[in-house]
């Protein structure tokens, strides 16, 4: 990416994008495209990454819940009622771990963007870098 140091406006935009789980990043990208504003790589990178993290934050817990609900329905089908309570416990613990991990990830991204640095999240950052080339 670029070696330019971002100014306070760009850092604030990147932080706002993460704190709103990509909503502000999406709005920023739409506004800047509409007015043909020359976007900096720093802002575009963090906006796209915040949108992707926001999508993951919404869909991963729902997918885990669907999986465990399916497992509980299968246990009911085969009259394995002793498995339902442990599955509910595992579901609630895994959802809490996913939400806590997501919040830590967002905090990590906010801190790095406040310092004007690019975050390096495996798979996600590499995908965003390839997309912005």
Which terms would index this structure?
single chain; 133 residues; mainly alpha; 5 helices; 0% strand
General description of the model:
The protein contains five helices and no strands. Helices cover 76% and strands 0% of the residues. Helix 1 (8-19) packs across helix 2, helix 1 packs parallel to helix 3 (41-77) and helix 1 runs antiparallel to helix 4 (84-114). It is elongated, with a radius of gyration of 19 Å. It is mainly α and 133 residues long.
Show the helix and strand layout.
Blueprint: H1 8-19, H2 23-34, H3 41-77, H4 84-114, H5 124-132
Helix pairs in contact: 1-2, 1-3, 1-4, 2-3, 3-4, 3-5
- Rough outline: elongated
Quaternary structure of the protein: single chain
Overall structural domain count: 1
For the biggest sheet, the summary is:
none
Question: What share of residues are in beta strands?
Answer: under 5%
Q: How helical, in percent, are the residues?
A: over 70%
Work out the number of β strands. Answer: 0
Mean pLDDT: 90
Based on helices, strands and strand pairing, what is the structural class? mainly alpha
Unreliable stretches (pLDDT < 50, length at least 5) are none
In angstroms, what separates the terminal alpha carbons? 9 Å
- Return the string of H and E elements: HHHHH
Number of helices: 5
Rg for CA atoms: 19 Å
């Amino acid at each position: 990416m670029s070696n330019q140091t971002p100014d306070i406006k760009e850092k604030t935009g990147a932080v706002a994008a993460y704190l709103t789980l990509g909503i502000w990043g999406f709005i920023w990208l739409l506004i800047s495209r509409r007015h043909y504003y020359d976007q900096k790589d720093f802002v575009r990178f963090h906006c796209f990454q915040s949108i992707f993290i926001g999508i993951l934050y919404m869909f991963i817990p729902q997918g885990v819940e669907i999986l465990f609900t399916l497992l509980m329905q299968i246990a009911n089908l085969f009259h394995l009622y002793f498995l339902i309570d442990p599955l509910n416990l595992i579901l609630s613990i895994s959802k809490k771990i996913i939400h806590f991990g997501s919040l830590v990830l967002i905090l990590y991204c906010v801190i790095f963007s406040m310092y004007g640095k690019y975050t390096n999240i495996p798979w996600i950052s590499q995908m965003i870098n390839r997309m912005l080339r």
